[in-house]
Amino acid sequence: MAVNDDLAEIKLRLQQLEDREAIRELIYYKARATDRADSVAEGRAFTAMPYADRDGPAEIIGDAEQRANTIRKMFARTHHQIGNIIIDLRGDEAFTETYCTAFHRTNPTAESNEFVLGKAHLDTLGGDIERAYDIVAGLRYLEHFQKTDGKWNITSRRLVFDWTITGVANNLVDSGLYTSSNLRGERKPDDPSYRDYAIGFTDLR
Questions:
Q1: Cα 60 to the chain's mean position, in Å?
Q2: Which residue of 3, 51, 169, 201 could cross-link 132, Cys pair, CB 3.0 to 4.6 Å?
Q3: What is the percentage of the chain residues whose pLDDT exceeds 90?
């Protein structure tokens, strides 16, 4: 009896480890989907999430294709660096808090700058609405995950901003150490991760 109990406990712990890793992978891939403006990856991450369960402007929290198009239109570049991930696992559901440092660069257009920064803040930066600006934000995602038919999906999400830094955009350094690689981050399908390595969602549990 004790052996069976031990095996059951080991099996449970292995399943929990596998579930935690699957949730972490989904969080990482979600950030990549945003940075690459990949609507297919966006759709996979948010398969079960209804419109009302996301925070933000309608253009950002709509369907995957709309979100990807908005990212392309309103941002020249984004880069989401995932930090601490706290997972409260409860069987086939989980609640998570994810820390993220996010870089956003606007396009040098009035539409992009007013959408991202708002006219009032643009005025504090000099009021030039036809140049690019950089924004770095410390934020957290509060999310609910559900496991259905063996796969995890994000079913609700809240976005918490802790701090932001804004300024006039600086070009990527293209001299010195930074000439050691001619690869630059791009959107799907031109980014090296698609073109050279074909990294995708097929390995997500």
A1: 12
A2: 169
A3: 53
CA distance to 1, 34, 66, 93, 131, per residue, from 156 (Å):
41, 17, 18, 12, 35
Q: Please tell me the pTM assigned to this model.
A: 0.85
pLDDT score for 204 = 46
Q: Are 69 and 176 in contact (CB under 8 A)?
A: no
| Six token digits for residue 9 | 């406990």
- C-alpha to C-alpha distance for 107 and 20, rounded to whole angstroms: 37
Are the C-beta atoms of residues 201 and 44 closer than 8 Å to each other?
yes
Q: What are φ and ψ of residue 171, in 5° steps?
A: -70, 155
- Which segments of the chain have a pLDDT < 70? 1, 3, 47-59, 61-62, 172-174, 196-205
Percentages helix, strand, coil for the chain, rounded to the nearest 5?
40, 30, 30
**CB of 19 within 8 A of CB of 27?**
no
